[in-house]
Amino acid sequence: MAGTGIFTEILDGEVYKYYSDGEWKTSSSGKSVAIINPSTRKTQYKVQACTQEEVNKVMELAKSAQKSWAKTPLWKRAELLHKAAAILKDNKTPIAESLVKEIAKPAKDSVTEVVRSGDLISYCAEEGVRILGEGKFLLSDSFPGNERTKYCLTSKIPLGVVLAIPPFNYPVNLAVSKIAPALIAGNSLVLKPPTQGAVSCLHMVHCFHLAGFPKGLISCITGKGSEIGDFLTMHPAVNCISFTGGDTGISISKKAGMIPLQMELGGKDACIVLEDADLDLVASNIIKGGFSYSGQRCTAVKVVLVMESVADELVEKVKAKVAKLTVGPPEENCDITAVVSESSANFIEGLVMDAKDKGATFCQEYKREGNLIWPLLLDNVRPDMRIAWEEPFGPVLPVLRINSVEEGINHCNASNFGLQGCVFTKDINKAILISDAMETGTVQINSAPARGPDHFPFQGLKDSGIGSQGVTNSINLMTKVKTTVINLPTPSYSMGHGFISRL
Ligand code: NAP
């Protein structure tokens, strides 16, 4: 159970503590933030509402802890990360339980998220040892006009304090995808978890605590993003921000100082279906891509662009599969569970009603109870409908019928988002041309969009992000190149003995 066993010390009465200076603490604010269970719509947990002074303290500690951490041998940093990964995986049950309660993620998927996160930490430790254990050696005589008198040594150095802000939908996985690369690279880390998902994150942080990381190196500040977010992101001690979430990321980018940013933001991933596609494969991928975790995934299929000639057949196949989706509590592993909040459910409903008013075809009856929205496929959606462009982040999927591949590509490219997309066809040559034409960070051929496996590069174009994720890219983003140049008085060529006599 959450907050019990090895996790007892992270709880103060009914409020979870925050983590600073290697200790679990109660905020001096005397205030807490409620975490509402999306299924019951009742308060499930409470976390500390941290103050600006507490943020200042954490930043000060992070700055000083980083200096010694950067001098800790790489293999020792990796060893601690492996230890944290093992503790996390051993304690998957209480962490998964809190994911079920605070973000209504189906129980099985919640366990998968924790295990996947442990694997990601370990992979990052291994990859970090290789990437950071190597540098470059450059010789000056490759550039015109130079003799071989300069030896240039390059290596990667940490940035300092990394601020990590993950979203509610994968709070543990998207937190460790920032924490592990930051730490292996010699940075310190301040985590601001999403409010819905904070308790799962606090449990995860405790696994790092138990692994024995130095005091002050990792901290976790809780509180509403709208209240402490600006203070954190504009804090002068922060040397890098790794953020995953919605449009908030765009405003953070505008306010942040001259520091590297890793922004993984929203998406409107298109699924382009050609006439020769295997429609059974497409239908399964639309179900998996559009309705897993009730559509609350950045890489969910968010618009289907299907050739008119096969649209009727595809819609029938998808409808048949939608009818089989189970709807209900996450504890029972239902496919469709309550969306994260009432405001999210209201937003989704607004998109549905707009589509209704403008004449979309409802393949199922629209049904909602509290935050629970039944899966809905909307056919004959047109570009004048909001749902053709906006991200519902819920179990509602629009189908636009197209008369040419160009029409599909144009729709995809007219979006302000550019996260992922997918194309279904048996013609690999066409698939490559379409993939190249789509203005998105990734295109999947004959499969639904997906972020994983977690070591693949993952990036969004346009409003979908800045920088690239994936283990290697994150490590690189959280480091800077440092060079040392050795200057020789006379040119020296390997194996050239001629000059020795001149010494
Ligand atoms: P969100 O509302 O943007 O929140 C993301 C995080 O930002 C939360 O931790 C939130 O804290 C915090 N926050 C809010 N206001 C802030 C501020 N002013 N300064 C700093 N931090 C602030 O997003 P969400 O609803 O959690 O997640 C859904 C969105 O994430 C969707 O748009 C989805 O597409 C996107 N997403 C993208 C990716 C990707 O990799 N591209 C992956 C997953 C999700 P509070 O919870 O306390 O408000």
Automatic annotation (TrEMBL):
GO molecular function: glyceraldehyde-3-phosphate dehydrogenase (NADP+) (non-phosphorylating) activity
Annotated Gene Ontology cellular component terms: cytoplasm
Ranges for domain Aldehyde dehydrogenase: 24-483
Domain of life assignment: Eukaryota
Classification via Pfam families: Aldedh
UniProt entry keywords in alphabetical sequence: Cytoplasm, NADP, Oxidoreductase
Catalytic activity: D-glyceraldehyde 3-phosphate + NADP(+) + H2O = (2R)-3-phosphoglycerate + NADPH + 2 H(+)
CDD domains: ALDH_F11_NP-GAPDH
Active site: 264
Enzyme Commission designation: 1.2.1.9
UniProt keyword annotation of Heme present: no
Subcellular location as annotated: Cytoplasm
PANTHER family: ALDEHYDE DEHYDROGENASE (PTHR42991), ALDEHYDE DEHYDROGENASE DOMAIN-CONTAINING PROTEIN (PTHR42991:SF7)
Similarity comment: family membership: Belongs to the aldehyde dehydrogenase family.
Protein name listed in UniProt: NADP-dependent glyceraldehyde-3-phosphate dehydrogenase
